[in-house]
């Protein structure tokens, strides 16, 4: 069977139709080039070139073989390039966990930014609550998670990638002058809050904010998902506070407004295993802040 070096020599001579130019192109001398062609012809048991003292031409067999030889050489070069790119993190697959709220605006922007600088890195997206992401990171089911703090596990590394404010969601049926503007305004108002088990991060944040403002809303529902809370607000069941990126959902019957005494306290963290060895992930980590930035 022939070897790849013999195919490279054949393609070079076939394209140059000159042994001297082909040898220079391959950075070798002419004698070993000629020997490779001779060995290839013996293996194939057909002449590939007509040779004279002045010209080199392809035989019919050589012309037919050139098409396939080029393809094999190109495939070999592509395989080497792909392997090197994978080893350097420029090519590969990253399994990515994310919370539902991060998918409203942050996640699409992050993926678009990655594609600009690492177009051959692909993602498998898995929507998960934060606790499930931590479990999946520990078990190796995902490589990277976008989740809510805190992450207090020695095997994990976390980096804040986003901080945003809460905004007010009011039923559109409520006149503007009657809508709450500050935390204290929610006292005794019907309020759709977050479940302490499945949305603990948001539940605890709001509990702290209302305690600081000495407000006691009348909690009518405890939910895990922001889009469900927005639907209930639109139906007139109460008010809610959601991360400002939720504006992109444009729910019917809901009016968004600024929380006048609100601060950017809603955090999102990128988290990965300290011993991660996925080259594509390791290529992303040093550039997280660049990739997570706005367009």
From TrEMBL:
GO terms for cellular component: protein-DNA complex. Residues 2-59 form the HTH lysR-type domain. InterPro entries: LysR_HTH_N, LysR_subst-bd, WH-like_DNA-bd_sf, WH_DNA-bd_sf. It comes from the Bacteria. Keywords: DNA-binding, Transcription, Transcription regulation. One of its GO terms (molecular function) is DNA binding. Belongs to the LysR transcriptional regulatory family. This is DNA-binding transcriptional LysR family regulator. It comes from Novosphingobium sediminicola.
């Amino acid at each position: 069977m022939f070897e790849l070096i013999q195919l490279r020599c054949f393609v070079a001579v076939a394209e140059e139709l000159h042994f001297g130019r082909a040898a220079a192109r391959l950075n070798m001398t002419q004698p070993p080039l000629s020997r490779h062609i001779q060995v290839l012809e013996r293996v194939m048991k057909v002449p590939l070139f007509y040779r004279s003292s002045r010209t080199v031409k392809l035989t019919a067999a050589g012309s037919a073989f050139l098409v396939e030889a080029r393809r094999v050489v190109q495939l070999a070069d592509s395989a080497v390039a792909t392997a090197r790119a994978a080893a350097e993190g420029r090519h590969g697959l990253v399994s990515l966990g994310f919370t539902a709220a991060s998918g409203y605006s942050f996640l699409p922007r992050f993926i678009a930014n990655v594609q600009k600088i690492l177009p051959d890195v692909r993602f498998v997206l898995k929507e998960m609550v934060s606790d499930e992401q931590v479990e999946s990171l520990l078990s190796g089911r995902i490589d990277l998670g976008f989740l809510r703090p805190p992450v207090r596990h020695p095997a994990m590394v976390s980096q804040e990638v986003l901080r945003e404010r809460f905004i007010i969601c009011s039923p559109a049926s409520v006149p503007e002058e009657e809508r709450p503007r500050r935390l204290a305004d929610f006292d005794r108002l019907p309020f759709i809050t977050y479940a302490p088990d499945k949305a603990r991060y948001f539940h605890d944040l709001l509990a702290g904010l209302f305690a600081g403002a000495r407000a006691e809303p009348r909690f009518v529902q405890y939910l895990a998902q922001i889009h469900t809370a927005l639907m209930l607000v639109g139906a007139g069941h109460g008010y809610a506070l959601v991360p400002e990126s939720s504006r992109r959902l444009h729910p019917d019957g809901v009016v968004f407004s600024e929380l006048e005494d609100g601060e950017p306290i809603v955090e999102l963290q990128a988290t990965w295993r300290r011993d991660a060895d996925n080259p594509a992930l390791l290529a992303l980590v040093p550039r997280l802040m660049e990739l997570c930035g706005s367009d």
